[in-house]
């Protein structure tokens, strides 16, 4: 059982806190992702778990072992934590062959020569780099170097993998391929893994659970599905998903005994089941969030307008391949929608419909989600 | 001329090796180990580079004779090593600044201690700065006259530079003897540059072009 518990972790650089009072529980064998824009404290958190930096407050437990405690003055060195790390620039030793690179942690711990050779060869085989063992790092491609870094981490049979944006330096195609392989590898090895990235697609595809961080604070912790469908605040809603969620300033009003979001240019009537939570917000300014795939082109053109449908100018069409990206604008409200196909041309007016059950509503003052 | 040449060769080699090694360790400590006052320390080292020889001459002679190292090869090694550390530290610090910190962090998580990291990671990557620092140090120590003439006047430790000057009589000039001496004196530097010249150029270029 290798779960990781973080209690009240705080790390300051000078006066600014890189991580503020973080509490986190990572389960055994879990693939856990720290996600956030650069400078949000995700790498700092990772380094704190690795023991590469000292923290100002809080505790870190790996399994049932206390590895860091600012209050009790405990700080185990990285090598005694049973962790292995993969760095963004791979950090493979340039003067050593691939074999020596992978063998390095074993050599340091004075492992028997015969065993080193066996374990290095086995690891290399697993990663498909057996034929490269005699090469020097500069003779390797980016993807191969990445595997060497991974091999060096795996060979020690660590309790926890820590990965700091390991795919960031690969080209787009290789990144997607390696992403899948990495996830498979983690499932096969069954090792608890913490993975740091700023790429929400990577996070969504690989993670069992994700923590979204911003300015050193955990904005939301949850499964990819929870984060996508039930974001707790504006930041998470905007950060997860590509293209980004549309945000529209609205006023919540009551019309014909139904709750309705008034965006000036159009209105959206809300389903009755939402109304109980929203009653107290009537008359308040709120922000409506709607994902691009929950905006449809209305098929009722020509006939009387449906509820929740409105006229809007189509500015631009971007064909992505499997779908089209429609850039729309009405008044000063820009909207993005993804549709399968359209007969409209750029510059024309189209009728769009919003699926009211897919709407997110955020409190404008606190930026927290109401629904 | 034979004894002074051997003297010069001995203390120049020893002081070169020592100052390079210590400079390398300093450079490693200043770039890769975070400690309080490291910047102040580096500033002091940098100031040391600009300290003129003449300014420290009197206290230097006093200190060396107190230590009982006046007129010995050991004394010259100590003086030249101390003076050389400043510039070698600067050189190695700048070079080690180019080695990514993640390499050190990786080695730490792999279980290597401070000295193991130095020995297994830093040192093998330092061929270039070692060559540059060694050539620089060898040349400047070999060419030094002032320390030699003040600290080692007797024949047991007299450097070649001083001996060469002594070949010149007060009244007559034996040009042939002087020239022969000068040639012998120039030879080691010539050999060093012939052997290490290409590394030196590469060292000067390091960092100028993205590797």
Write the topology of this structure:
The complex is a heterodimer of chains A (371) and B (211).
Chain A: E1 4-13, E2 16-26, E3 31-35, H1 42-50, E4 57-62, E5 65-69, E6 74-75, E7 83-86, H2 98-108, H3 113-127, H4 142-154, E8 160-164, H5 172-189, E9 192-197, H6 200-206, E10 209-214, E11 217-222, H7 224-229, H8 234-239, E12 246-255, E13 258-262, E14 267-269, H9 275-278, E15 285-290, E16 295-297, E17 309-319, E18 324-330, E19 333-339, E20 349-354, E21 360-363
Parallel strand pairs in A: 3-9, 3-10, 7-8, 8-9
Antiparallel strand pairs in A: 1-2, 1-4, 4-5, 5-6, 10-11, 12-13, 12-15, 13-14, 15-21, 16-20, 17-18, 17-20, 18-19
Helix pairs in contact in A: 2-3, 2-4, 3-4
Chain B: H1 2-32, H2 38-49, H3 57-66, H4 73-96, H5 101-109, H6 114-122, H7 127-143, H8 146-151, H9 160-166, H10 175-205
């Amino acid at each position: 059982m290798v779960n990781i518990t973080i209690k009240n972790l705080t790390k300051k650089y000078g006066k600014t806190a890189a991580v503020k009072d973080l509490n986190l529980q990572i389960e055994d064998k879990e693939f856990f992702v720290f996600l956030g824009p650069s400078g949000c404290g995700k790498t700092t958190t990772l380094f704190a778990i690795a023991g590469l930096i000292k923290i100002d407050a809080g505790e870190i437990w790996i399994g049932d072992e206390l590895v860091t405690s600012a209050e009790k003055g405990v700080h185990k060195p990285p090598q005694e934590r049973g962790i292995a790390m993969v760095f963004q620039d791979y950090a493979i030793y340039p003067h050593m062959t691939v074999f020596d690179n992978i063998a390095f942690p074993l050599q340091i711990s004075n492992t028997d020569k015969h065993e080193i050779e066996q374990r290095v060869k086995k690891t290399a085989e697993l990663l498909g780099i057996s034929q490269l063992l005699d090469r020097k790092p500069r003779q390797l491609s980016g993807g191969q170097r990445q595997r060497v870094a991974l091999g060096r981490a795996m060979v020690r049979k660590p309790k926890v993998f820590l990965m700091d944006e390991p795919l960031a330096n690969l080209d787009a195609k290789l990144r997607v391929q390696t992403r899948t392989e990495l996830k498979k590898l983690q499932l096969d090895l069954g090792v608890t893994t913490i993975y740091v990235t700023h790429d929400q697609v990577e996070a969504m595809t690989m993670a069992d659970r994700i923590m979204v961080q911003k300015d050193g604070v955990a904005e939301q912790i949850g499964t990819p599905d929870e984060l996508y469908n039930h974001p707790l605040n504006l930041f998470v809603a905007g950060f997860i998903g590509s293209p980004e969620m549309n945000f529209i300033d609205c006023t919540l009003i009551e019309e014909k005994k139904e709750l309705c979001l008034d965006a000036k240019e159009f209105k959206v009537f809300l389903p009755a089941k939402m109304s109980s939570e929203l009653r107290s917000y009537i008359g308040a300014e709120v922000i409506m969030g709607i994902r691009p795939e929950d905006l449809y082109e209305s098929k009722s053109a020509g006939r009387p307008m449906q509820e929740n449908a409105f006229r809007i100018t189509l500015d631009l069409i971007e064909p992505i391949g499997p779908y089209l990206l429609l850039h729309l604008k009405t008044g000063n409200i820009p909207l993005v929608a993804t549709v399968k196909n359209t007969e409209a041309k750029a510059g024309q007016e189209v009728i769009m419909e919003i699926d009211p059950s897919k709407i997110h509503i955020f409190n404008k003052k606190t930026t927290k989600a109401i629904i | 001329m034979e004894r002074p040449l051997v003297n010069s060769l001995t203390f120049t080699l020893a002081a070169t090796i020592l100052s390079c090694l210590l400079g390398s360790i300093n450079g490693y400590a200043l770039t890769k180990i975070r400690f309080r006052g490291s910047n102040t320390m580096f500033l002091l080292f940098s100031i040391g580079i600009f300290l003129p020889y003449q300014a420290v001459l009197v206290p230097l002679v006093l200190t060396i004779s107190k230590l009982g190292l006046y007129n010995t090869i050991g004394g010259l090694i100590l003086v030249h090593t101390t003076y050389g550390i400043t510039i070698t530290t600067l050189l190695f610090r700048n070079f080690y600044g180019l080695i990514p910190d993640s390499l050190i962090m990786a080695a730490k998580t792999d279980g290597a201690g401070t000295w193991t990291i130095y020995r297994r990671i830093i040192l093998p990557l330092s061929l270039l700065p070692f060559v540059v620092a060694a050539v620089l140090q060898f040349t400047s120590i070999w060419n030094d006259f002032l320390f030699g003439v003040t600290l080692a006047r007797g024949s047991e430790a007299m450097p070649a530079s001083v001996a060469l000057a002594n070949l010149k009589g007060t009244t007559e000039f034996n040009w042939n003897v002087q020239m022969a001496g000068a040639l012998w004196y120039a030879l080691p530097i010539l050999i060093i540059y012939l052997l290490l010249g290409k590394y030196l150029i590469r060292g000067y270029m390091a960092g100028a072009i993205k590797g």
